[in-house]
């Protein structure tokens, strides 16, 4: 019972709470056996064209609910339109600003743990109807039920069936948290901290399906996610968008087919280049505000790259939105790629919320992308490490090849709490209520930006995505981004996403509240006063190293060739003019300043040394102190 409660706390941290509630129902004549897998009892429904959403723009009311509209009771939040939803109901808080810590009432928790024989049978019978309406969390439901560790023991009659605890002779070795440490103190410590989580850690049992060959609840959860976003197919990733982007490259490019991509693409794109062996054709990086912010790329650069490399390009990769909320003109990119017959891949890791309400920019799929990769944890409510890979209708990418590439980069022992949190994150933003949740969050972000500009006199970076608020310090001679970050964090408990030389980024999310907004605005107001006062001199700090211009032509070999070439380690000050064997990416945001096969310059090395001195992490560096670097022989 405690394990079930912790799953809810785990899966819905920093997101509107989704509570799976079971209530009593009348018995039915369904005779399906309770110890059968859900995949056997419920063949996965085929979603017809009329159930699939229009890819031009998301309209939640007609898309996921068909003719039915979900209504929520003020007292119980039970959905009224679907008979099954009166038993298995997705409940949301009435206000986005309510605290996410108020997860389960005692009555809801008791209802969640109740095991109703009639409800199981009726849920099995009606599951297809709910899936067609877009309701439910099939994977989360199956996992929470399986986590109860109760099986129905078969008898000759219903009266002889009895509940009994499960004895797990399957991996993992902790046996659902039953660690025998033979030490009372250690046992108490482990039980208090890990036992509820370990109880949820199960392998590919029948009831929870198999990510590598989904036929039951995982397949159903992926179908519901595909329908929400207008995809032909959606695949879950527990290795983040990092694996999704690399898989998309693997599915479209090889040693004979180049990849057109921005020079400031994420580290995951480099992984895909090394794995595929593709030659990169880099697009110019447009950095603004002293190199702090990437402004994306444009369709003209893509047109020129495709014309120059006619017939040799396997795919075009675009990042939209960027880390700071800049959205590319994906529709223009799609038109260029269409003319050249090349698939368009979009790294949409920061845009899982896009297109889900009218106040937000359209999503990549709505604009014509062939493949879009989204992190469901960055802005929505999934756990960290969760992502989805969408394949568009009529995409110029093989579904089988894409799926196989993603599975190659996925653990064969995926964590089911992660998978279930993707299912729950989708449910939280699905349907009419989900659209209202996203709209409220967006309105709050827009109002917060206005208050920062109008009420406390800070400049903000214009962005297409209102969920990214970047405060600029270009007129603050005495403070840099780290100074402001220290003031906000140390004195007021307001922690930013990223502090750079002359900017500080604040990332909005589905769990952001009015209280969060008020504290941010108040703290920024006090920071403005402190910066302008004479006492602010004590807070002056060394500016963060500025990002030098990113080269798109200073390469002597492909990333894959550099990865496997012979190397040596030399002092950093001797590396000017040598070819790097490493990818060196200041993190966050994880954009490589140096790529394997790129010739090192003095500006690059100075920036890396300065970043390391200030305590920053250099992703990909074999020497974190940056005293030495690996170069090609």
Describe the structure.
It is a single chain. The chain is α+β, with helices and mostly antiparallel strands. It has a seven-stranded mixed beta sheet with strand order 5-13-12-11-10-6-7, sandwiched between helices. The chain has a four-stranded antiparallel beta sheet with strand order 14-15-17-16. Strands 1-2 form a two-stranded antiparallel ribbon. A hairpin with an 8-residue loop joins strand 3 (150-153) and strand 4. Helix 6 (138-146) packs across helix 15 (416-428) and helix 9 (217-229) runs parallel beside helix 15. It starts with a helix and ends with a strand.
Overall morphology = globular
Strand count: 21
Please count the helical segments: 20
- What's the Cα radius of gyration? 26 Å
Q: Main β-sheet, in a few words?
A: 7 strands, mixed
Strand content: 5-15%
Classify the helix fraction into a percent range.
Answer: 25-40%
Structural class: alpha+beta
Point out poorly predicted stretches: 11-127
Mean pLDDT: 78
For the biggest β-sheet, the strand order reads 5-13-12-11-10-6-7
Amino-to-carboxy terminus distance:
60 Å
